[in-house]
Amino acid sequence: MSHMASEIIAFMLAVSGWVLISSTLPTDYWKVSSIDGTVITTATFWSNLWKTCVTDSTGVSNCKDFPSMLALEGYIQACRGLLIAAVSLGFFGSIFALVGMKCTKIGGSETTKSKITCFSGLLYILCGICALTGVSLYAHKITSEFFDPTFLEQKYELGAALFIGWGGSSLSVIGGCVLCFSLSDNIRAPRVNYSYNGVTSVRSARTHLADTSNGRGAQRGIPRHFDKNAYV
Questions:
Q1: Dihedral of the CA atoms 176, 179, 184, 185 (nearest 10)?
Q2: In what order do the strands lie in the sheet with 31-35?
């Protein structure tokens, strides 16, 4: 029962992490920069993996989509690929986890279900690693430009999407590791102990058979001893 409860908790953690990772793709604020002046001239510049925008003090946003995927910077293309791969791995991990968990009635025998659950845990771990790599790569680009004195263009700060991605990847890795432990728990199953009573001798075996046959003969009404005139 405790093993089933740990699987359910791990599945909830992994799915929650996968949902958070998926929510980072359409999130607007990957990097943010503000220009503060008077109340009227305040503007906020923000960007994500798909577009760059500016929002004025009245709340009106003007956005510009990235014109071409081939003309993008390398780190944006890498982040897109890693995040999409993470979402795909988490999707297949959820399917395999539902098949392999002990609380479901599909998946075959207990050993097969444990292997499927372990495989889903590996998918969740890969999902978290891909998301963590993509988010960290984007954050490294922001911080390197921010602290570079020779970088004269507009500097940005870390947005909310990066923190959501870090949290989701951590939950996905933790849940996947717990699901992988289900296979090792199944391997360490308790062994059946047999007691050794020694080898039965041939004489004792014959004596036991003779007693059994005499008992059967007595039940059928056949006498055990016969005299010389028994068949006369």
A1: 150
A2: 61-65, 51-56, 43-47, 31-35, 157-158
